[in-house]
Specification:
The chain has about 120 residues and is α+β, with helices and mostly antiparallel strands. It has one helix and six strands, in the order αββββββ. The longest helix has about 35 residues.
């Protein structure tokens, strides 16, 4: 009897963990859409000296001269520096990838903060 209840307990914990991960991911996606502004960095990927990502326009208006500003932070969240990359124009619903060569002084970064700017029309 103990063995059976232990199995059910483990299965229940695995299910709870899986649901928690799914709900956390869903919360992140909806939070990204509801943040201030309608240009959102969807995903990023770091290589040794390059930061790549995708930005999407969720607004109904077109965005011109879209620029992504990246703030590079160390483990203690201290700002190491900032860099920017121009993405171009994005119509409503469009997305575009970007690639940024990381400056030597910013390569120690472990965290990033993204701010996206554009001219709306």
């Amino acid at each position: 009897m103990r063995y059976v209840s232990g199995v059910y307990l483990r299965v229940g914990l695995v299910i709870c963990l899986a649901l928690g991960i799914l709900l956390a991911g869903a919360g992140t996606a909806s939070a990204a859409k509801s943040k201030k502004g309608d240009l959102v960095v969807l995903d990023t990927e770091r290589w040794i000296d390059t930061l790549k990502g995708t930005v999407k326009n969720f607004n109904k208006a077109s965005a011109r001269d879209v620029t992504v500003v990246v703030k590079f932070l160390d483990r203690r969240k201290k700002v190491l520096g900032t860099q920017r990359v121009s993405v171009g124009d994005l119509r409503s619903g469009d997305q575009s990838s970007f690639s940024l060569a990381i400056a030597e002084k910013n390569r120690a970064a472990t965290h990033y903060e993204f701010t996206v700017y554009a001219i709306w029309h």
